[in-house]
Amino acid sequence: MMPFFPHFGELGSAGIHLLLVIGLACLLPSVVDPTRVWHRAVLMAISAVLAVRYAWWRATETLAPAGLTIDMAASWSLFALEMLVLAGSLSSFLIMARFRDRRAEADAHWGWWGDAPPPRLAILIATYNEELAVLERTIVGARSLRHPNKVVMVLDDGRRDWLRDFCAKQGVEYLRRPDNKGSKAGNINHALERLAESDVPPDFVAVLDADFVPHLGFASRCLALFHDPEVGLVQTPQHFFNADPIQHNLGLTRSYPDEQRFFFDHMQPARDGWGIAFCCGTSSVARWDALQEIGGFPTESVTEDFMLTLALQEKGWKTAYLAEPLTEGLAPEGLKEYVTQRARWCLGLMQIARSSLGPFARNGLRLRDRWSVVDSVFYWTTTFPFRLAAIVYPLLYWFFNVTVVDAALSDVISYFGTYFLWIIVALNVLSRGMIVPILSDVSQLLGAAAISRAAFTGLLRPKGHPFSVTAKGGDRSRIVIQWRLMAPFIILLVLTLAGLLAGIFSDRFAFSDAGDGKWVILFWTLYNVVVLSFTIIACIELPRRERHVADVPERATFQAGEIESRPWITSLTADTVRLRGRAMPLGTAGTLQIDGVGKIPARVIARYEDGVRLHLSPDQQQHEALMLRFYTQDDLAPGVARVRGPALIADLARRLSFNSGGR
């Protein structure tokens, strides 16, 4: 007689755990509301339980025996680093258990000043070496904000006469100082000093980076949250009208979000639920009285924004986060700039941790503010070194027969596989599908060495580091291979493949005494081969062209002599337009009428099967109207907000075939 319940072996039982998580992955999106705190808390509590379960298993069953051996040194060092990462993950799970959406609050308190004159807003645009094409759209966007009582000030630490003349033509104020002391924070503080000397100082101060264009409603939406007299600063998310280097170089512009979307769209609202959202520099508005009370922007760190939040919190001021697309800027276009920016953020956070506003310093910060800093320190000091370790440690087995994780395959599936898969499911449910493990690993690995170096340099020697400006603009019209960045990944890939092949074809490597654990190392190695391969491809920088990803097709009117047509606009830039409809001879001249811009002189420069491309010759007023159209429209967020699965697979396949089409 057969038993009623089938008997599963150890491997089959472990597989049941994974099947359970997969089943829940199909069910959870239909029952979980990411905006409900108790739903989030349950998901994150399960994540924490599985993390602790995994940590206990690692500590009790997978480590090499104690002794003065290489096996123990490798096994225990990896375990220690992994547990530090896990501690940071537990902190993140707790943060993600809450959520706050202030959009309804902004609706309810819009124009809270009533019949009184609108508050005076000073808009500060800090610049150092950006070119006119970058600065122009920011200045035009700031000048065009709907808020009536405002002053726009361009703070030029590059001391450029041409920029002074341009500001005069635009009707905005221009300010320079004799030195660059204090970098960006010092530049802003210099402007605050001049504003304090004016007859009518502002009520609020907005800060924009030189490449961030405000939407028309930026000021009014941010000011709405200052109805609460305790709010000292309002931060809004950063969106980008261009693809970041990872999106672009892997050909994922249309299918994969930029690297910061998870932080701005999901982590910051979660932090706001705890009251620990922080300033991110650009796209923020601060109360004048609050800035005066703390003496302006702190200068102890190269990331003055996070430190500004701590300085405000110490004096009892709140930071509010408004999760609306209210500005859009230029993401780093090159990998070197991308890595430099992240390393600067890391260095600045380490400087804060060692400053007078650090988590263990004697100051007036709340316990949750100290936790906020510690959480960030854990992220920067553990995530990136662990990403490097995950690549290097399997090599110890293939070349030196050092087993860093001594575990049966069934246990790895049950403890690690279940935990890892659940985390991916839970975070994708809360973020509405934004987490792709391999691509996340690629983004971390690209900057891992520089960021790890910055982390420990900042902790050990926090002072004396120069402010590194992220370069923007420039020529991106050709393929550039970042050989210096790519070389370590090529070496690691060659070593990984060599170790794998040596273990397969030679008995002198990968001895059999690892037992079942050899399967663990094998899977780990194959995963690393994939991650390293994509990382190397990401180091090949593809040409870029101007693209406005928020554009949608629309009708226009093209007039050429007596002939008038109504084609569809399918692609529009500042000086070219692609039309679908009637084909016309090369050189045909006429005018193209676009809603909100007017009649622009145009000439046919290319023919296609379904239409033509025109060269546009707008006057200055039309040129500015085009910029406002591209970058300042309310309720439009450029880029991709979530992963588009089928499109992602197709894009990766296209990129691997090296037929990216210039995407």
TrEMBL record:
Looking at the keywords, is Transmembrane present?
Answer: yes
Q: Where in the cell is it found?
A: Membrane
Give the keywords, sorted: Glycosyltransferase, Membrane, Transferase, Transmembrane, Transmembrane helix
Source organism superkingdom: Bacteria
TM segments? 12-32, 37-56, 76-97, 377-400, 412-430, 485-505, 517-540
Q: According to its UniProt record, where is this protein mainly located? A: membrane
One cellular component (GO) term of this entry: plasma membrane
User: What is any Pfam family matched here?
Assistant: Glyco_tranf_2_3
Taxonomy of origin reads: Bacteria, Pseudomonadati, Pseudomonadota, Alphaproteobacteria, Rhodobacterales
The signal sequence is none
GO MF annotation: an example: cellulose synthase activity
Give a GO biological-process term.
UDP-alpha-D-glucose metabolic process
Q: What is this protein called?
A: Cellulose synthase (UDP-forming)
* Origin species: Palleronia salina
Per UniProt, what is the membrane topology? Multi-pass membrane protein
